[in-house]
Design a protein that fits this description.
The complex is a heterodimer of chains A (about 850) and B (about 240). Chain A is of the alpha+beta class and about 850 residues long. Chain A is built from 24 helices and 22 strands. In chain B, helix 4 packs parallel to helix 6 and helix 5 (about 125-135) packs across helix 6 (about 150-165). The two termini of chain B are about 10 Å apart. The chains are: A alpha+beta (about 850), B alpha/beta (about 240). Chains A and B meet through helix 1, helix 8 and helix 9 of A and helix 2, helix 3, strand 6 and helix 4 of B.
């Protein structure tokens, strides 16, 4: 016998028998859930890299304070790559009556190589993308320059020795930077006009850049790496936004773990279906052996069938995942860039391997046992293939560890997830078991159909607990995220005082502090407080360079690596509470002191008494850590992680910011404000809050979407359990009907069973979701939690409908089976 | 002895099967000895629980004896492992069962091809088609077992049993699941093919009529063989 041909014939014939279809569905669901997440994350990562390129306006940048030799461009062109040059420097734009600090950006044709400029005809109008650049003698500027100099498009402005026509308004530059406290507006001119301005003296603070883009940029980078002179450096997308990349990776891993819950549940369905399939195939295996097939041949024939299932399921799962990732993209909508790269096939092999692991761990052990069916079974039906419990558990455990490892890619996280998942599943199973026990007590008090149904739920205790757990978790997550999306955020917003600040004013120059305060007081803002902000980089802790300080926490690492916002105050901000150490006395003498927000201090491993040194515009400022604070971020007051004692940052270049409450009827004052203080940026907190809520809502929708797979897995577990109990149910139904029960009574009993199961699952989910919601309300949002009867109703209804309907549909055929046929067969 | 050894196809020596049960060790077959000559037809009869099926299982190498030996065509089956016994069956043993035991996933033709493929026959399809035609099912090659009547299924099983031209054929209550008329036709077919191909036939049966059609009958009771256990002219080595 050729096992290959035999397996193909059997697969084709048997896949409709149910068990193989169930195996296939469960594996397809696993592959589908994980490939949806993998494909989706891959696309977002691709978009992020695209955006990182955009933030550089190139794929690779060579940067230097000194003019760059032409050889870089020559090397790039030799590889067929596009190039452009950008020269940046600060300067002053002047008119006959006014002047303004600007960031001059002189560019050659081709700029930007990635992304595009958006320009408008009027200041603050919405711009349209353009591929053109300022012609010679033209200058394009950000709206703030128009406002500061009181100019309109078409007016003249001087830069050094040249005069320019302000021809267009820059709405967006891809490489503008992310820091909204940039002081000077950008002035874009053609590189050909640069020399004539005579601004590039030897002492000027210039940054020269050669931009490169195209396939092969990475190779060019490798080539150039060894050839850089002092002061020259290479930037590529990796240097773009490391924290964004880390965030996407984390989100991807989180979604992957969410998908893993569905996979693990699907494994239960796989194990049940495979076991039953193996039992049904035991006769055939025994006949094959009786006819002279060796153990190896039988094993190969059945293992090959599993392989066909794996291939078919992999294909179906990949298609499912492909569709589902499109669903995820649709859910996130405009949170994602419009030009999201398409899904790439590269994400699929991993998920197919996952399908193989699921089958290997949960379906192969019964198949292995099938290979060992005694041939004597042809004469003695009672001989079952022996499924070694040890082998099965070992295979399952190995598979689970492999799956976790694959999703978490970190032993610590894998252990944590295993523990957390174990605790959640264990908790659900325990409550489910208790509920079943309680149910057992009431069955004497209900009618015959319900007694029969409830008795079945209790009697199939193990299966019932598995189903309750599966559905309970799935429904609980949907309820919880639904509640977070709707109630919790709304309620939190309602707890904010009506006069909470609703506008932030940033980029206030030191000489504008007094006039702005006056202006605000006149506009009805009580005691406006302007907080100083100084940008600086952490360079040393206790005299040790920060590069040498070990930081395990990635958040701390990124915090240490980027510029921090420092401030100073004589007294703590309202809503700040010193939890360790003591705030400085207003009259304190002695060295500079600093206060850190407690969580960031812990992440950085800082302790009271240590000293930190910041590089503030080239000056080193060292201060002793004397207090740690808790900060009430919901106060919408300007707050800082790091606050220095007054005087410590004296002379450092600072801008100021404040937050104010402006009732809607007085928002006209803002117009006045922007006119009088053109460099001040006004940020609407309502807009930010709406954005935050939108992001949270979409993110929870995404997670809910992934948990739909968990519900799907729950349905499969239910179907597999019904299938496993089919013969038993058929027999019971036949006996009941022989004893005179009407078909309707038997059906009512089955309905009672699944409605009970569904109701219990729903209530379990409501209990779990409610508890977590209560915790969230108390610990995160700091507010009273009110039980939501709608939530309870939704959970119970969802469970009852889902389990009740699925169960009834799956068992109908059993009840309809003619009893005489069943009884004759025994 | 030497002169008759070639004539003996199947020989059992002091065959004993014991199983452990909650009441202690149970002896199902107790020192059975027999010899079957080539081409002979033998019926094994006896009441339920007399050890008929166990004897059949041991003779066919489907099970291993607690003590004693089985020789098939001079090869000691009881000394082989399960795969070795399977290979020996593939080479020269066919089976017909009471419950037909066709593979439900395979068509009539595929079921009959199976032993030919297992014996690595050169043209399994042609051989299977020929033997199916011989049992009168040449027109139903593509039917699955559940599309055939009980009698037809047993014909397929007989075709499968004879397909590889085995030297020995075991039949376990071959007419037990069939009505009398169909059973009689199946019995005719079995004996006709046997006569035509010169196969040695060992039938386990309750059916006195079927037993009477065999050249010799071996009666079992309480795990022991009653009466003569050897074919005329064949010695039983003990």
């Amino acid at each position: 016998m050729k096992p290959l041909a035999h397996s193909l014939r059997s697969f084709a014939r048997e896949w409709r028998s149910g068990e193989l279809a169930m195996l296939l569905a469960a594996v397809a669901l696993s592959v589908g859930a994980t490939s949806a997440v993998a494909l989706f994350t891959d696309r977002v990562r691709g978009a992020m890299e695209q955006q990182a390129s955009e933030a550089l306006a190139a794929d690779l940048v060579i940067e230097s304070r000194d003019p760059l030799p032409a050889r870089f461009e020559a090397a790039a062109r030799a590889r067929g790559l596009a190039t452009a040059r950008v020269t940046f420097f600060p300067s002053v734009a002047t008119t006959a009556t006014a002047n303004q600090l600007v960031e001059v950006r002189a560019v050659t044709a081709g700029y930007p190589l990635r992304g595009s400029l958006r320009v408008a005809d009027q200041p603050y109008a919405r711009g349209a993308p353009t591929r053109t650049l300022p012609a010679r003698g033209e200058l394009w500027a950000e709206p703030r320059l128009f406002a500061a100099l009181g100019l309109a498009p078409g007016d003249k402005v001087r830069l050094g020795a040249s005069e320019f026509t302000l021809s267009r308004v820059l709405d967006y530059l891809p490489d503008q930077g992310w820091n909204f406290v940039d002081v000077a507006p950008t002035a874009l001119i053609n590189d050909a006009d640069l020399a004539a301005t005579e601004l590039l003296g030897p002492a000027s603070r210039v940054s020269h850049r050669v931009l490169v883009a195209g396939a092969g940029s990475a190779e060019l980078k490798a080539e150039l790496e060894g050839q850089l002179a002092r002061g020259q450096r290479l930037l590529d997308v990796r240097d773009g936004r490391p924290e964004l990349r880390a965030a996407i990776d984390r989100a991807g891993r989180f979604l992957g773990l969410a998908a893993l819950v569905a996979v693990l549940l699907a494994c239960v369905a796989v194990a049940m279906a495979a076991r039953r399939w193996a039992r049904r195939e035991a006769d055939a295996a025994a006949i094959l052996k009786c006819l002279g097939a060796r153990q190896r041949t039988v094993l190969a024939a059945y293992a090959l069938i599993v392989l066909w299932v794996a291939l078919a399921a992999g294909l179906a799962g990949a298609l499912l995942g492909w569709g589902a990732q499109a669903g995820l993209v649709a859910l996130l909508g405009d949170l994602l860039p419009a030009d999201l790269p398409g899904p790439s096939l590269a994400a699929l092999p991993g998920t197919l391997a996952l399908g193989a692991v699921v089958l290997g761990g949960f379906a192969l052990p019964p198949v292995w046992a099938l290979g060992r069916t005694p041939p004597l079974r042809v004469l003695r039906r009672d001989l079952q293939p022996q499924l070694g419990a040890l082998l099965a558990s070992l295979a399952a455990l190995t598979a689970i560890v492999a799956l976790l490892w694959w999703q978490a890619r970190d032993p610590r996280i894998a252990t944590l997830v295993l523990g957390g998942l174990g605790a959640v599943v264990g908790g659900f199973a325990l409550v489910a078991w208790l509920a079943l026990r309680a149910l057992g007590r009431i069955r004497g008090r209900v009618g015959v159909a319900w007694r029969y149904g409830v008795a079945n739920v209790v009697r199939r205790g193990r299966e019932s607990v598995a189903q309750l757990t599966a559905f309970g978790i799935g429904i609980a997550v949907l309820l919880l995220l639904g509640a977070v999306r709707t109630n919790l955020l709304e309620e939190w917003r309602a707890t904010l005082p009506a006069d909470a600040p609703n506008r932030f004013l940033v980029n206030v120059q030191p000489d504008e502090v007094a006039p702005l305060a006056e202006f605000l007081t006149a506009a009805g803002v009580a005691e406006p407080q302007l907080e100083p902000l100084v940008r600086a980089r952490l360079v040393e802790v206790d005299g040790v360079a920060i590069e040498q300080v070990k930081l395990a926490d990635p958040r701390a690492r990124s915090f240490a690596e980027r510029e921090a916002n420092l401030s100073w105050r004589s007294t703590p901000q309202v809503g700040n509470r010193v939890v360790e150490g003591a705030w400085w006395k207003p009259t304190a003498v002695g060295g500079p002191e600093v206060s850190f927000e407690v969580e960031i201090a812990r992440a950085l491993g800082l302790e009271l008494g240590q000293t930190v040194t910041y590089d503030v515009a080239g000056e080193r400022v060292t201060a002793r850590l004397t207090s740690l604070r808790e900060v009430d971020w919901d106060s919408f007051k300007p707050n800082f992680f790091i606050v220095f004692s007054p005087g410590a940052l004296e002379g450092a270049p600072a801008t100021y910011l404040t937050s104010i409450h402006l009732p809607p009827e007085r928002s006209a004052a803002l117009l006045d404000l922007t006119r009088r203080f053109p460099s001040v940026t006004v940020i609407d907190t309502d807009v930010i809050l709406t954005q935050v809520r939108d992001v949270i809502a979409r993110a929870s929708l995404t997670v809910e979407f992934v948990f739909l797979f968990t519900l799907g897995a729950g349905v499969l577990v239910l179907l597999a359990a019904v299938q496993a109990s089919r013969d038993e149910r058929r027999f019971e139904s036949a006996v009941l009907r022989t004893l005179g029960a009407k078909r309707r009574t038997v059906l009512a009993g089955v309905a009672a069973e699944f409605l009970t199961l569904g109701l219990l699952a729903g209530l379990l989910a409501v209990l779990a979701a409610g508890s977590v919601e209560w915790l969230l309300a108390r610990e995160v949002f700091d507010m009273e939690w009110r039980p939501d009867p709608l939530l309870a109703l939704a959970g119970a209804a969802l469970g009852t409908l889902l389990v009740g309907v699925t169960g009834l549909l799956a068992t109908r055929a059993v009840v309809d089976h003619p009893p005489v046929e069943t009884l004759r067969k025994g | 002895m030497e002169g008759t050894e070639d004539a003996v196809l199947l020989r059992a020596v002091a065959l004993t099967k014991q199983v452990s049960s909650p009441e202690g060790t149970l002896t199902i077959l107790d020192g059975a000895a027999l010899a079957v000559a080539r081409g002979e037809t033998l019926a094994i009869t006896g009441p339920s629980g007399s050890g008929k099926s166990t004897l059949l299982a041991l003779l066919a190498g489907l099970d291993a004896p607690t003590a004693g030996q089985v020789f098939l065509d001079g090869v000691e089956l009881s000394a082989l492992d399960e795969d070795g016994r399977a290979a020996a069956r593939a080479r020269g043993v066919g089976f017909v069962f009471q419950a037909f035991h066709l593979l439900p996933a395979l068509t009539a033709l595929e079921n009959v091809m199976l032993p030919l493929e297992l014996a690595e026959h050169a043209e399994p399809r042609r051989g299977a088609e020929a033997v199916l035609a011989e049992v009168g099912l040449g027109a139903r090659l593509g039917h699955y077992p559940n599309q055939l009547s009980g009698g037809e299924q047993q014909r397929v099983a007989i075709a499968r049993a004879f397909a590889a031209r085995p030297s020995l054929l075991f039949a376990d209550e071959p007419t037990g699941n069939l009505d009398a008329a169909t059973g009689a036709r199946i019995a005719d077919l079995l004996f006709d093919l046997n006569a035509k191909l010169g196969t040695t036939l060992v039938i386990v049966t309750h059916d006195a009529g079927l037993a009477a059609r065999c050249a010799r009958e071996l009666k079992l009771a309480g795990g022991r063989i009653l009466g003569t256990a050897a074919a005329p002219g064949v010695a039983i080595a003990t």
